[in-house]
Amino acid sequence: MAPKAVLVGPPGAGKSTIGRRLAQALDLPLFDTDVAVEEEAGRTIAEIFVQEGEPAFRALEEEIVRKAIESHEGIVSLGGGSILSERTRELLKGHTVIYLEISVAEGLKRTGTNTARPLLAGGDPRQKYTELMRKRRPLYRQVASIRIRTDGRSPARVVQQLVAKLAE
User: Fold this and answer.
1) Structural domain contains residue 166
2) CA angle 36, 86, 4 (to 5 degrees)
3) pLDDT tens across 49-99, in order?
4) Which CATH number is 155's domain given?
5) How many CA atoms lie within 13 A of 23 on its CB side?
6) 27 is in an annotated binding site
7) Separation between Cα atoms, residue 139 and residue 104, nearest integer Å
8) Structural domain containing residue 54
9) Is residue 70 situated within a structural domain?
10) Would the annotation count 112 as a binding residue?
């Protein structure tokens, strides 16, 4: 068993929204790893970060991603930082991985000052998002077999393009 596609990208790129719509368009189930992490922990991601720290969160996330990649047959939406794990990047090899690309400006517009996103909380949001992208963009590109920009595009348009690409 393997997922039809795995979505990756930074906060605000549309992984959850596009994931839901893509799964619906393809009549497949969606597995959102952020939702699964929260269900497994019984807490929000922000609470895990505060109470246990990022390393504990990443360990739990890595295990949930592994299970999803190994057993889910639909669409898998990964948390934005999941690609920081070398183990996760290895697991993604050979799978259809869709990188939802977004500019820093658009990402900031979409995420705003969302405190549910612990890595963007506090300080200068533009600086934090820019630094996050500097570190992660090469990793997203490394794992991606399909790249699609989501800036200025409706979710419906992005899904339409992805359905066509997945049919190729």
Assistant:
1) no
2) 50
3) 889 988 999 999 999 999 999 999 999 999 999 999 999 999 999 999 999
4) 3.40.50.300
5) 20
6) no
7) 16
8) 5-160
9) yes
10) no
What pLDDT sits at residue 114?
A: 52
Q: Hey, is 12 helix, strand or coil?
A: coil
Is 89 one of the annotated binding-site residues?
no
- What's the first-to-final CA gap in the chain, in angstroms? 20
The total of structural domains in the chain comes to 1
**Residue 123 annotated in ligand binding:** no
- 41 annotated to bind ligand: no
- Does residue 165 belong to any structural domain of this protein? no
Give tens-digit pLDDT for 107-148. Answer: 888 776 554 555 555 667 778 888 889 999 999 999 999 999
Residue 12, marked binder = yes
Q: Is 149 annotated as a binding residue?
A: no
Residue 14 assigned ligand-binding role = yes
Domain assignment of residue 101, yes or no:
yes
Residue 68 is assigned to a ligand binding site: no
Q: How far apart are CA 8 and CA 99, in angstroms?
A: 5
